């Protein structure tokens, strides 16, 4: 027992925590003992490219994760989704003790780095490593497996009801979204707790707890005006032209929309005699001349909110601003919902309290709630309306979504311990 206690924490901590049970001490020791195995698995996952549109690559990462989960006693299903032009999702189920809480674990197989990216390989430097998806989210999946292996070795996995959904298109969801997220939403309705293994947020050297994620909603503004010789612009007969009117509407967004927890952005803008944005939303084209009043303008962007009520309110304000278009012009705004919001509910706060109880017993510092403006949208939001949840159980990293992505390998240890003990405690409670 003393040997296990001495192995308990890799990070600096207080004396061996007296509140840990023998099984929990064994879990902590297993995470430490298997650390290099976890790092080796992370390297194999990272070295397999799984950019969202590299469908074979995503499937191969799914196969690697499936093998690990089958070894832990999970029933694994690969759900292909050719209808959405994405690889599919991995779904794994472990049946535990009847009548106890059902845990949903969420992660994703894909990365933002496609097969033609020059950023392809895992490179370790002591307790850090760079590589595509090393933190987001392959590091998170490794933490998940480290925790589950520790639970198996301590005998707590057998009694725990767990469903795992690893999506293959978190970074760029397939369409239609209703089909792309149907399995995850259904799993959320079955679950009592959702735990998202995306990255751990760290501020000023302090681990943070995440109980909320904001939504992501796209919009497209289309403005038309009367074309003619530029000498007639601003006259009653011709009005302001499409570009000036689009600029006026966007300026009104800036002055009238701001409120707490909201951000909004114009990402692409074009105007002229003709103007268009391609179906991908990434490229715009326009034609015109300096002496012609522009007949068309188009802009697209997004806005992010902390609740679905806020989404509805902001959308209504944007529609009202656009409806006030000036004479001689017409304006329309269309919305494309993306990720819903995960509001900071009382249930989510209670789960963070449970995690902080684990931290106290491990001798780790309390994790304050993270400002949701500092997290992007994510898959747990699709189940947030049905089940309480926590975000950020994966590894800490920096430079995510860039060729400078670097994962803090040491966080596999403390995150694996936190997750294993939290899941073991939640998993024995009655529904």
Tags for this entry?
431 residues, alpha+beta, Aminopeptidase, Alpha-Beta Plaits, 2 domains, 18 strands, 33% helix, disordered N terminus, hydrolase activity, zinc, metal ion binding
Describe the overall structure.
Keywords: Hydrolase, Metal-binding, Zinc. Residues 211-328 form the Peptidase M20 dimerisation domain. Its cofactor is Zn(2+). One of its GO terms (molecular function) is metal ion binding. This is M20/M25/M40 family metallo-hydrolase. The chain has 431 residues and is α+β, with helices and mostly antiparallel strands. The protein has 2 domains: 2-213 and 342-427, Aminopeptidase (3-Layer(aba) Sandwich); 216-339, 2-Layer Sandwich (Alpha-Beta Plaits), CATH 3.30.70. Helices cover 33% and strands 24% of the residues. The strands form 5 sheets. Strands 1-2-6-3-7-16 form a 6-stranded mixed beta sheet, with helices on both faces. A hairpin with a 7-residue loop joins strand 17 and strand 18 (406-408). The relative contact order is 0.19.
* CATH H-level superfamily title of the largest domain: Zn peptidases
Give the percentage of residues in beta strands: 15-25%
Number of domains: 2
Helicity level: 25-40%
The residue ranges in which pLDDT falls below 50 over 5 or more consecutive positions are 1-17
Radius of gyration: 25 Å
CATH architecture of the largest domain: 3-Layer(aba) Sandwich
What class, by secondary structure content? alpha+beta
Shape: elongated
CATH topology name of the largest domain, in short, is: Aminopeptidase
Elements, N to C (H/E): HHHHEEEEEHEHHEEEEHEEEEHEHEEEH
Cα(first) to Cα(last) distance is 33 Å
Pfam families: M20_dimer, Peptidase_M20
Keywords: Hydrolase, Metal-binding, Zinc
Protein name: M20/M25/M40 family metallo-hydrolase
Domain Peptidase M20 dimerisation: 211-328
């Amino acid at each position: 027992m003393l040997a296990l206690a001495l192995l308990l924490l890799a990070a600096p901590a207080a004396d061996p925590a007296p509140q840990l049970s023998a099984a929990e001490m064994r879990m902590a020791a297993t995470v430490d003992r298997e650390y290099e195995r976890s790092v080796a698995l992370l390297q194999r996952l990272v070295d397999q490219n799984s950019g969202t549109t590299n469908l074979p690559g995503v499937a191969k990462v799914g196969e690697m994760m499936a093998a690990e989960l089958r070894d832990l006693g999970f029933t694994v299903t690969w759900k292909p989704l050719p209808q959405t032009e994405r690889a599919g999702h991995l779904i794994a189920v472990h049946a535990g003790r009847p009548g106890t809480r059902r845990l949903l674990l969420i992660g994703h197989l894909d990365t933002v780095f496609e097969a033609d990216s020059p950023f392809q390989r895992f490179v370790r430097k002591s307790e850090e490593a760079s590589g595509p998806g090393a933190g987001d989210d392959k590091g998170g999946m490794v933490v998940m497996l480290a925790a589950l292996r520790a639970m198996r070795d301590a005998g707590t996995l057998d009694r725990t009801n767990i469903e795992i959904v690893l999506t293959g298109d978190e970074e760029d969801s397939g369409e239609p979204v209703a089909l792309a997220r149907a399995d995850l939403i259904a799993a959320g309705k079955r679950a009592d707790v959702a735990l998202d293994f995306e990255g751990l947020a760290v501020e000023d050297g302090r681990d943070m707890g995440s109980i909320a994620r904001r939504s992501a909603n796209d919009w497209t503004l289309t403005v038309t005006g009367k074309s003619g010789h530029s000498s007639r612009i601003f006259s009653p007969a011709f009005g302001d032209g499409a570009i000036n009117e689009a600029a006026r509407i966007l300026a009104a967004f800036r002055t009238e929309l701001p409120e707490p927890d909201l951000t909004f952005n114009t990402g692409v803008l074009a105007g002229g005699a003709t103007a268009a944005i391609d179906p991908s939303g990434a490229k715009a084209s326009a034609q015109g001349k300096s002496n012609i009043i522009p007949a068309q303008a188009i802009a697209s962007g997004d806005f992010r909110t902390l609740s679905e009520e806020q989404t509805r309110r902001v959308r209504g304000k944007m529609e009202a601003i656009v409806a006030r278009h000036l004479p001689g012009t017409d304006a329309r705004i269309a919305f494309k919902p993306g990720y819903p919001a995960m509001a900071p509910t009382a249930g989510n706060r209670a789960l963070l309290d449970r995690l902080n109880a684990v931290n106290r017993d491990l001798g780790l510092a309390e994790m304050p709630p993270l400002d949701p403006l500092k997290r992007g949208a994510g898959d747990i939001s699709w189940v947030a309306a049905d089940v309480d949840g926590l975000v950020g159980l994966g590894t800490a990293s920096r430079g995510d979504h860039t060729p400078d992505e670097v994962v803090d390998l040491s966080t596999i240890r403390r995150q694996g311990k936190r997750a294993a003990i939290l899941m073991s405690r939640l998993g024995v409670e009655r529904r």
